[in-house]
Amino acid sequence: MRFNARDLDAQTLLTRARKEATEIFSKESTRRDRTLNTITETCLYGHSAELYLISQQGFKDDQRPYKDLYDTSGNSVEVKVTEGSYYVPYVLKRLNEAKQQTWRNFPDIAYIFIGDKKTYDYELDGIYHWNETLNRFTKQRN
User: Fold this and answer.
1) Which distant-in-sequence residues (6+ apart) come within 8 Å of 89 by Cβ?
2) Which of 11, 12, 22, 62 is the least buried, fewest Cβ under 10 Å from its Cβ?
């Protein structure tokens, strides 16, 4: 899966990102000393992948707070975007830690995209599934 964020509906993307950024900014625990502008930029970066999956792949928005999407089978999916493949192990570490916190009701499926902040090109690094035996997310084999 590859796309360029410039091909997405800019108004829809901005509306989605601003909504989540405002929610994040409203609490010090999620704000973590960041400005609303900084949070909005981070949300735009991540929501680009979400909007692509909604508009091009048939995914549905998950309206619950801090949840991402439902795939075409109705499974809850976490969507992450990072700057390079060298960051994917760190993203996986954070996903594994989040999954261990049972109160979060964290999804069993994660999509990780690599997003270039200069060119706006995005590419799917992989689809990861929670492996109960290994107690971590593992990449789905094609």
Assistant:
1) none
2) 11
